[in-house]
Structure formats: C-alpha cells, structure tokens
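Reopening this ticket.

The earlier resolution said the output was attached, but the attachment link was broken on my side. Pasting everything inline this time so it's all in one place.
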Amino acid sequence: MKITWSQLVKKSEGKELCKYSDVLITRLGYDSRLISLCEGLLFVALKSSRADGHDFIPELYARGVYCFVVERAIDVNLYPKANIFLARSSRACLQDLGRWAVAHYPIPLIAITGSNAKTLVKEWLATLLSEKFVVAKSPQSFNSQIGVPLSVWDLSGHHQIGIFEAGISQQGEMEHLEKILQPSMGIFTNI
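Inline output:
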C-alpha cells in the first residue's frame, strides 16, 4: 500500500502538527529496533506497558525517519524536516491504515482465528491456494491489534486472495480486527 502524507492527514482523526513535504508513505514501523531503511517509512509511536514509542523519535529522526504519528504533543521545533501527525490514538490510526489498504485492494480475504494452530492453518491454506492464486498472507503470526494492520498494509494489486490470522488477548479486540479485515470467509481453529 502507498499513501501520501496529505492523504493520511485527510483521512485520519487528529491534526497535523507540522509538514515538511508531501512524502509517499510505503512502509509502516512501530518498533525502532526493526527499522533499517527509512525512506517512505511512517513511524507510529505506540505506548505499551514496556515502552513508549515517543521516546524513540529523537533517535529515529537522527537515523533519517521523517514521518511520525504520535498521540501526545511533541516539540516540533526539534524536528525541522519532519511530518508529524497527532492522532487521537496511534493504534487507532494504524488500524485505519489497515482498513484503507483492504478497501484499496478489494480481494477475497480469509480470516483465521482460534485458540491455537492459526499460523499452521494459514501456511497450509496459503500453500494449497498458491497453486491457483497469488496469495497475500500475514507474515509469521502477525495476528494482533498491531500485527493485522501491518500485515494488510503489504497488499498490492497483484494479489488475488488474502489469508490473515486474527488473534485476541482481551475482550472486544475481535471487533477491531473484523473492521480491518472485513473477511469474505472465516475459519475457526480449536477453541
């Protein structure tokens, strides 16, 4: 998926804190340890019980990341070449990006959920379907509130079918994943 900075600002809930240029966003990142290439990257600053992504913005900016989604105000004067968007929720903004990717590439999607064997079933089904279709699938077991939007972001025009895992750890999470995937078919593994 690709989206311009202006499209992100127009489609997201929140406000643009600063804009240096209308860059084309081609990749999403949320973990500073996993970021190697910076061109076209949008860093989504997420907060968890272990870390706050906002704390890594100075380091990422120094490494060449210039597009950020944040959920608390930051000093934009420290980042003169940056595009910074203040979202009501960084996680919700990431999920919106996932929804836009799915809407942009309307192919049949299969969602796999259950207590265990989601990854095994996804890989098995992807292997079988790849004999007739170009298959998009979630990498590894990206099945969380963060993993699903990152997975569907990789959809492109050549894919003919998608197979994505959807996992939950708390009540109410499946509703968010369903809104992202809007699957044509669902598969329940062992519950």
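Reporter confirms the inline version is readable. The chain has a mean pLDDT of 95. The radius of gyration is 17 Å.
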